[in-house]
Amino acid sequence: MKKEKALHFLSYSTNGVNTLKSNKTTKPKILIVEDDRNSQELFKFLLGKKYDLSICDEEMSFLAILEKTKADLVLMDISLNGEKNGLELIRYLRKNNLDYKHTPIICYTAHAFSQDKINAMNAGADIFLAKPVSIEILIETIETALQKREKAN
After folding, report:
1. Is residue 2 a part of any domain in this protein?
2. Average pLDDT, stretch 33-59?
3. Range of the domain at 58
4. Based on the structure, what is the number of domains in the chain?
5. Backbone phi, then psi, for 10, in 5-degree steps?
6. Which of 11, 73, 90, 110 has CA atoms 20 to 30 A from the CA of 127?
7. In this predicted model, what pLDDT tens digit does every residue of 67-104 receive, in sequence order?
8. Rounded distance between C-alpha atoms, residue 114 and residue 101, angstroms
9. pLDDT: which is higher, 21 or 61
10. Could you tell me if residue 66 is inside a domain?
11. How many C-beta atoms lie closer than 10 Å to residue 145's C-beta?
12. DSSP 52-105
């Protein structure tokens, strides 16, 4: 009996959406909203084997991903390309998209002041992590948030 392997490929579109897709997946889906290309590549490398990733860097590509897929968790930076920042996108998810009303949102950002955390939590983030954070802590935080989500459903 042959083991079935999931084939992965990166899909790059002209609107700035990078999506790691799988033809067969049971991996949790994570929407990463991050403007820094190096950080995007690092996320792909560090998280891509464990999670099904969709990555974007600004509002329009973010909205395009929301139309196509339902993420199990959102990892959101505050500073983004385009007109809207991560806090505005978090507010949008919480107020305008019922599918994401209870989806865990981790605000992962270089904005490290206490007021930044307050602003993120007031916008609707569940967890605030100030960069840099070790990959172990990031994965542990993601796993904990996903487990809480699973228990709530």
Report:
1. no
2. 96
3. 8-152
4. 1
5. -95, 135
6. 11
7. 999 999 999 999 999 999 999 999 999 999 888 989 99
8. 25
9. 61
10. yes
11. 21
12. EEEEESSHHHHHHHHHH---SEEEE-SS-SSS--HHHHHHHHHHH-GGGTTS-E
